[in-house]
Amino acid sequence: MAIRKISTNLWFNNQAEEAAYFYTSIFKQSSVGRVIRYGEVRHPIDGLSEGDAMTVEFELEGNTYVALNGGPQYQFTEAISFIVHCDTQEELDYYWENLSEGGDESAQVCGWLKDRYGVSWQIVPAMLNDLLADADSSQYNRVMKTLLQMKKINIEQLEQAAKGEQDNKGE
User: Helix (H, G, I), strand (E, B), or coil: what is residue 22?
Assistant: First the structure.
């Protein structure tokens, strides 16, 4: 795995290696690369010992990441999220079910979820922005009204809303 000019760093308490293997088990074109372990000399962070993973390089669908075990001082927030663009409902369901497993169900809204590590994801249809960007403002309103009622997105319901063929009930 080649080091890229820009990589995303994810700060975990002590679950970096576990998280990297979890994410690479979900995304088909992915791999775990180099794992650097803490040695005797390290920053004094509670709970991390010599031999624990310090950083784990991994790749998901061509994007590179570094998972860092840095201790509990920083937490993930919804201000940063990863968007997974899905072409089919089957693909959307797959990512939703796998990434949401063990996550915070109260954080599920409009295609957003929080996984078991507190990382926020948006699992959305690839065509969502096309439905929302249509020049017809009434289409935007119908689609948005439907979307705002959903947790996991239902593509068929959004398409029906775009055409004005449904009563805007979300999942």
Answer: helix
- Do 136 and 144 touch, CB atoms closer than 8 A? no
Q: Which helix (H) or strand (E) holds 57?
A: strand 53-60
Instruction: Report CA torsion sign: 157, 162, 166, 167.
Output: positive
What's the rounded Cα separation, in Å, for the pair 45 and 66? 19
Give me the count of residues in the chain.
Answer: 171
What's the token pair of residue 26? Answer: 């979900």
Rg over alpha carbons for the chain, rounded to the nearest Å, is 19
Q: How far apart are CA 154 and CA 156, in angstroms?
A: 6
Q: Convert the pLDDT of each residue in 105-145 to its tens digit.
A: 999 999 999 999 999 999 999 999 999 998 879 999 999 99
* Helices and strands, number each (H, E), in the chain: 5, 7
Q: Phi/psi at 98 (nearest 5 deg)?
A: -75, -45
| pTM assigned to the model | 0.90
